[in-house]
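Hypothesis: this fold can be encoded by more than one sequence.
Test: take the C-alpha cells below, design a sequence, compare later.
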C-alpha cells in the first residue's frame, strides 16, 4: 500500500500524499473550469451591484413620494403618478435628414418640459413654483437611478439567458463607473428634494455674486424675467460697461433656455454686443483638480444642442466674440451637492470675468455674461 507514495518521492507520509492529490485536483479543476469560475465571480459582483442599485432605486422612489407629499399636499396618494413619471421616455427626432433637426429637437424638449410641469402640477397642487421645479429635478434624478438599475438588470438577465460570457465581462468591466454615476444621481436626488445647490450651479452662482458686488455700492440692478422661459436677466454696470447677466431663475431647480435669451438680447441690441462671456462647469479628467478654472472660446453650455445652436447663430450673425470660462468638476460632482472647492472657484471666476471685461471691451460697450447651469438652491 505504501508503494504508490514512494513512487512520487513523498515517502510514506499519508498527509503528504493527500496534499499532493488536493494540489493536483485543484490544478486540474482550475485548468478545466477557469472560465466558469471567472464568469461565476463576475456574476456575483454584478448581482451585488444589482442589489445595491435596486435598493437605491426603491429609496429614490420613497424619497420622491415623501417630497411630493411634504411640498405638494396632494389629495391622493402620488405613488402611481411618481412610478409613471419614472418610466417617462423622450424619443429623439430622426436625424437621417439633418435639415431642421435642431428645431425638431427643441420642440420635443419643450414638450417634455411641459409634460413634467403638468405631471408635477397634478400630483403636487400645493407646491410653490420653486418647490415644483425642485420636484421636477427630484423625479428626473429618481428616473436616472431607476434607468441605470433597469439597464444593468437587462444585461445581467440577457447574459444568463444566452449564457454569454462576453456580455457579463463587458458589464463587469464598467461596473465601478456605473455605480459611481448611480450614486451621484442618488445624492443629486437628495439635493433636489432639499433644495440644496449642486455642482452644476456654478454658473448661476457667479452671476449672483456679480449682482451682490454691484449692490454693495447701493445700486440696484434692473431685472427682466420675460426674455425667455425660466430665464432672468439682470442689468448692471461694471467698469463703465453695461453688463447683461443671463441665468436661469432660482432658487428652484431650473436651467431655462439661456440660448434663446441670448439670441433675443443680441437682436434687441441689433448686434451691438461687444462680447459674450459664458460660465459653466466642465468635466474634468482623472488627475485634474476639482475647482480648477480654465478659459477657452465657444458656447459653453452642455445642452442637447438647441440652446448652443441659438447662441452660435447669434454670435456668427453679428461677429460677436464668444469667451468661455470653465470650472473643472467630475461628472458626479456636477450633480451632487456643491463642494467647497467649487464654491471657492466662483470667487476666482468672478474676478476673472471682471478682468476680461476690462481687458477685452471698451468703456460704454454692452457685454452679455451668461451663467449656465442648474439654479437649485441658488437665489
Amino acid at each position: 500500500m505504501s508503494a504508490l507514495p514512494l513512487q512520487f518521492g513523498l515517502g510514506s507520509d499519508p498527509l503528504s500524499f493527500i496534499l499532493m492529490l488536493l494540489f493536483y485536483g485543484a490544478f486540474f479543476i482550475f485548468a478545466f473550469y477557469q472560465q466558469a469560475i471567472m464568469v461565476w465571480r463576475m456574476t456575483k459582483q454584478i448581482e451585488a451591484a444589482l442589489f445595491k442599485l435596486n435598493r437605491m432605486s426603491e429609496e429614490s422612489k420613497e424619497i420622491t413620494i415623501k417630497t411630493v407629499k411634504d411640498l405638494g399636499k396632494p389629495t391622493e396618494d402620488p405613488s402611481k403618478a411618481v412610478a409613471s413619471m419614472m418610466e417617462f421616455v423622450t424619443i429623439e427626432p430622426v436625424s437621417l435628414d439633418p435639415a431642421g433637426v435642431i428645431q425638431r429637437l427643441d420642440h420635443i424638449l419643450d414638450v417634455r418640459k411641459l409634460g413634467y410641469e403638468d405631471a408635477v402640477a397634478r400630483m403636487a397642487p400645493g407646491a410653490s413654483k420653486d418647490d415644483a421645479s425642485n420636484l421636477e429635478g427630484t423625479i428626473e434624478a429618481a428616473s436616472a437611478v431607476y434607468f441605470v438599475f433597469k439597464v444593468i438588470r437587462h444585461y445581467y438577465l440577457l447574459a444568463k439567458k444566452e449564457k454569454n460570457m462576453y456580455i457579463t465581462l463587458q458589464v463587469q468591466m464598467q461596473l465601478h463607473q456605473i455605480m459611481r454615476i448611480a450614486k451621484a444621481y442618488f445624492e443629486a436626488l437628495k439635493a433636489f428634494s432639499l433644495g440644496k445647490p449642486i455642482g452644476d450651479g456654478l454658473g448661476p452662482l457667479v452671476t449672483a455674486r456679480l449682482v451682490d458686488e454691484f449692490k454693495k455700492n447701493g445700486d440696484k440692478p434692473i431685472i427682466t424675467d420675460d426674455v425667455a422661459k425660466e430665464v432672468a436677466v439682470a442689468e448692471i454696470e461694471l467698469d463703465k460697461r453695461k453688463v447683461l447677466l443671463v441665468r436661469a431663475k432660482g432658487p428652484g431647480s431650473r436651467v431655462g433656455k439661456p440660448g434663446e435669451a441670448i439670441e433675443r438680447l443680441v437682436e434687441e441690441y441689433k448686434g451691438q454686443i461687444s462680447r459674450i462671456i459664458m460660465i459653466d462647469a466642465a468635466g474634468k479628467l482623472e488627475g485634474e483638480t476639482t475647482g480648477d478654472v480654465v478659459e477657452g472660446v465657444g458656447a459653453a453650455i452642455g445642452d442637447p444642442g438647441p440652446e448652443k445652436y441659438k447662441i452660435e447663430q447669434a454670435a456668427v450673425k453679428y461677429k460677436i466674440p464668444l469667451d468661455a470660462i470653465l470650472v473643472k468638476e467630475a461628472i458626479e460632482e456636477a450633480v451632487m451637492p456643491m463642494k467647497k472647492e467649487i464654491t471657492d472657484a466662483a470667487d476666482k471666476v468672478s474676478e476673472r470675468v471682471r478682468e476680461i471685461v476690462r481687458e477685452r471691451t471698451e468703456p460704454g460697450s454692452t457685454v452679455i455674461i451668461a451663467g449656465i447651469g442648474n439654479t437649485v438652491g441658488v437665489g
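The chain has two domains: 40-194, 199-371. DSSP finds eleven helices and seven strands in the chain.
Hypothesis status: open.
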